[in-house]
Model the fold of this input.
Amino acid sequence: MATEFITVSEDTLRELEDEESGICVLCGEIAANVEPDAAGYECCNCGEMTVYGSEELVIRGLVSFGEDDD
Ligand SMILES: [Zn+2]
Done:
């Protein structure tokens, strides 16, 4: 888990905060209804427990800012 991180734009992170969504750090799937402090939720796309809320992403250093992956 330690090496997993995702690159998103700051706009995307802001959207996650506004919409209370999380993101999977493995596949980049955005998950709805994820609290900002959520950690280790199951990803509905890849099935791994790697969905994090917007605050946890930053706190854990799982996110780096850049262009969207997709
Ligand atoms: Zn996933």
About this structure: The longest strand covers residues 6-8. DSSP finds two helices and five strands in the chain. The radius of gyration is 10 Å. Strands lie at 6-8, 22-24, 30-31, 51-53, 63-65.
